[in-house]
Design brief:
There is one protein chain. The protein is elongated, with a radius of gyration of 20 Å. It has twelve helices and eleven strands. The two termini are 22 Å apart. By secondary structure, the protein is α/β, with parallel strands linked by helices. The longest helix has 18 residues. Strand 10, helix 11 and strand 11 form a beta-alpha-beta unit.
């Protein structure tokens, strides 16, 4: 595990469990709340979907973790909890970022005080900020008032940087991320290609990042005017590449959230989703949304946003 990002002697015990849920973007939005618990009680153990717990642990954000669908945890939903107790160990307090009454009841049967923070936010409120504010209120500490006030919580490690260097050595002026979980959230590929071409013609070093879903759909460099393609980098590699890029231009997708959380400069292109609730959190995020939908968002607006976002001066250290 990487050295912890929490101060020495943080909190009186390590017997907290932090329960995360959702896809990559959801998990990233829950990280500031995870950090708040860690600052109060020391690094919590993490229960999360898929492999997210492992990369959170590698960043020093957790103290071991498990998949929420681990078969040994089935008893938390119905039946004996002995296997879950043996797996999780003693838990004083469980912080739940999802609405899951069965799991909450099971954790209570283990003797944990369950803090249920995952109810949907009020209309117009931001998802991740609301979770953080709820956790901070229960900890008795102050919370930020706006998503832009939240400092980037992820720190790519030297090992992740070295792995990213193998994919793209040297400076990266613009990283284009055209994928998303839903077609309605995707700016047309031809627009990304045109944006990349305009940036490249201006002398910028530009790359396109494609995830496993896009590669399965048959997307390739040909769709983006022959621009260099970074194919399916890992989550750690993605964080490191986004952090070093002059600007990341992406859709309403998990990678845009990851980029902002890693300290990247982000232009997030939104379609039908409400950015007031779902925009990436952080100080270097610009959101573009056209009232007529993503198909109506012109390349010129994205180009202007990319240039202006690149010009933002970030503090060192």
């Amino acid at each position: 595990m990487a050295s912890s990002v929490y101060p020495e002697g943080a909190g009186p015990d390590l017997r907290s469990l932090f329960v995360m849920g959702g896809a990559l973007g959801d998990v990233v939005l829950q990280v500031p709340a995870l950090q708040a618990v860690g600052r109060a009680y020391g690094p919590p153990r993490v229960l999360a979907p898929r492999a997210w717990a492992q990369w959170l642990d590698a960043l020093g954000l957790g103290c071991g973790g498990w998949r929420v669908d681990d078969m040994r945890l089935l008893g938390l939903r119905a039946g004996p909890v002995d296997a879950a107790r043996a797996l999780l160990g003693p838990i004083d307090r469980a912080w739940m970022m999802t609405e899951d009454p069965e799991l909450a009841a099971g954790l209570a049967r283990l003797g944990a005080t369950v803090e249920r923070c995952g109810a949907p936010p009020a209309p117009g409120a931001h998802q991740g900020l609301t979770l953080l504010q709820r956790v901070c209120a229960r900890l008795g500490v102050d919370a930020p008032g706006h998503p832009a006030d939240i400092a980037p919580p992820l720190r790519p490690t030297p090992a992740w940087e070295a792995s990213a260097d193998a994919l793209w050595p040297g400076p990266l002026d613009a990283l284009l991320v055209p994928g998303s979980g839903g077609a309605a959230k995707c700016w047309p590929r031809c627009r990304f290609a045109a944006l990349g071409l305009r940036l490249s013609q201006a002398g910028q070093r530009v790359a396109v990042m494609l995830g496993p879903d896009e590669l399965e759909r048959g997307w390739s460099a040909e769709d983006f005017g022959g621009l260099p393609v970074l194919a399916a980098p890992s989550v750690p590699e993605t964080a490191a590449l986004c952090a070093r890029a002059g600007v990341v231009v992406g859709n309403d997708a998990g990678t845009s959230h990851l980029a902002a959380a890693a300290g990247g400069r982000v232009v997030a292109l939104f379609g039908p989703t409400d950015p007031a609730r779902w925009r990436p959190m952080g100080p270097w995020v610009r959101v573009l949304q056209d009232p007529e939908g993503l198909d109506a968002l012109p390349v010129e607006r994205a180009l202007e946003a990319a240039y202006s976002t690149q010009s933002v001066v970030q503090p060192s250290g």
